[in-house]
Design brief:
Elements lengths: L6 H16 L7 E7 L3 H17 L2 E7 L5 H13 L5 E4 L9 H5 L13 H8 L8 H12 L8 E5 L6 H10 L3 E5 L6 H6 L3 E4 L17 E4 L3 E3 L2 E3 L4 H4 L5 E2 L6 H24 L1
The chain binds NADP nicotinamide-adenine-dinucleotide phosphate.
NADP nicotinamide-adenine-dinucleotide phosphate (NAP) binds next to α10.
């Protein structure tokens, strides 16, 4: 088996299987993406989501507000989408421009349409190991590890980064798999001590090649979440070329966690759709 974990291939398999499933649906599933402003990175991510929807047969609704839009208009749109029976998933594209409160807006999204799994109610359910919509990047990481047959029970898992989008939900998911979890952040002292202790190291910091070869344990599994753009090239948070020689498995950037985030979003849309269809029968 290869040392490099291929997220692109697994994404394609997932998209293919969802496409077959959707063919049998009477009504087309619909994902609504709300964008505020015109952030170039967000435009790229939204394009990738639209492309995946198109491939699978999911209707993609892109609602774009300018930075001058009043918060109440965005709230009213979310409420309208919550009440629209033909919209099955709602996502607020992050980051938001200055002056908008992402946490407040996200929590207006109905929990059964919250396909990013970021509402307080879905995060709470995740921590209580109850069925819920799970945040896409952490869910993608778990899927990759499962696909690679990596048993997490009793293993030392170190997560570097504690954002609401990646690190925090991942803590809950890892605990649910009985891993022993250490979480590091910008105030952590002696970071290397924690990263070197990890059987599975997940890095979500946003700093190019931040994790060096001497910071990882031999034979560890390294999951690199970072996406850092420099001179039109993408780099992860891990010094990939050096670290890969030492570890058992590693995700590349691009082609590792990134594609899985899109695959998990599509999976969430279909799961949300199916639950909503069952309820309406
Ligand atoms: P974020 O919200 O900026 O969080 C960064 C985290 O890194 C924070 O918890 C911060 O600690 C921690 N940190 C910063 N400097 C550190 C240091 N010197 N030592 C240890 N920890 C440090 O970022 P994010 O949204 O989680 O994203 C992280 C990276 O992943 C970015 O490159 C982003 O583009 C990428 N990303 C990729 C995907 C994907 O699909 N592949 C999805 C989401 C994000 P504090 O909490 O103390 O500030």
């Amino acid at each position: 088996m290869s040392k490099i974990i291929d997220g692109k291939k697994l994404k394609e398999e997932i998209i293919d299987s969802l496409k077959k499933e959707v063919k049998h649906f009477m009504i087309k599933p619909c994902l609504a993406v709300i964008q505020i402003g015109d952030d170039p990175a967000s435009n790229t991510y939204i394009k990738a989501k639209a492309k995946a929807c198109d491939e699978i047969g999911i209707y993609f609704k892109h609602i774009k507000f300018t930075e001058e839009t009043k918060e109440i208009e965005v709230i009213n749109k979310i409420i309208e989408l919550n009440n629209d029976e033909y919209v099955h998933g709602i996502l607020l594209q992050l980051p938001l421009p200055d002056g908008f409160n992402a946490d407040k807006l996200i929590n207006y999204i109905a929990r059964n349409k919250d396909v990013d799994g970021l509402t307080d109610i879905n995060l709470g359910k995740l921590y209580n190991n109850k069925p819920c919509l799970i945040s896409c990047t952490p869910q993608g990481i778990m899927k990759l590890l499962e696909h690679e047959n990596i048993d997490l029970e009793g293993k030392n898992v170190t997560i570097v980064g504690r954002s609401n989008l990646v690190g925090k939900p991942l803590i809950g998911l890892m605990l649910n798999k009985n891993a022993t979890v250490t979480v590091c952040h910008s105030k952590t002292e002696n970071l290397s001590k924690h990263t070197k202790n990890a059987d599975v190291l997940v890095v979500a910091v946003g700093k190019k090649e931040f994790i060096k070869e001497n910071m990882v344990k031999e034979d560890a599994v390294v999951i690199d979440v970072g996406i850092n753009k420099e001179d039109n090239k993408l780099y992860g948070d891990v010094d990939f070329n050096k670290v890969k020689t030492k570890v058992k498995k590693i995700t590349p950037v691009p082609g590792g966690v990134g594609p899985m985030t899109v695959a998990m979003l599509m999976t969430n849309v279909i799961n949300a759709y199916q639950k909503q269809q069952k309820k309406s029968v």
